[in-house]
Amino acid sequence: MRVGQARELIGQAVTDAVRSGFAAWFNDMDYQTHPALPPAFQAGSERAGHDASRVPEVPAARVESRITDGEPGVFFTYKVEYGAEPLVQLSVPRTWARQVAGAGWAVVDGLPVVDVLDWDDSVKPARPARVRTALICADFDAGMHGWRAHADNRTCRVAWTSEGTASLVVPWDEPVGA
User: Fold this and answer.
1) Structure confidence at residue 177 as a pLDDT band (50, 70, 90)
2) Contact 110/13 with Cβ under 8 angstroms?
């Protein structure tokens, strides 16, 4: 897999996460029956961003990446009220193109991977055991922005099924004392 393909996969994963996050928030908050009032302060002019009575359309996310010598991460914030496409900015280590994108690990369990921190060498080829990723949070902010989403950078363990399916284990789901 090439870097461009990895960026496309990450863009689709983030877009899907935002769409499903908005839909889940809409359902959980019962906005179909009782929509929130539009935010009192509206920074952007896109009306769909302030309308809690329906889940807004989310265009495909654009992904940019740059090499960092610092900590890898994802910068992502999206507000429907501005009417622009979501922009995902990756800060990746020098090894990302080969070890992550090139090896097919750019998306694990539906989330972007910016670094593999530990490998499971018990299988060949080795697979990720711990990764740097970003959880995608999406909701309706009735106080200011309306429909919005952002990234929450995390280090997560990767759990594997016997069939080889990966799932990320978020820190708060780790067993205590493990």
Assistant:
1) low
2) yes
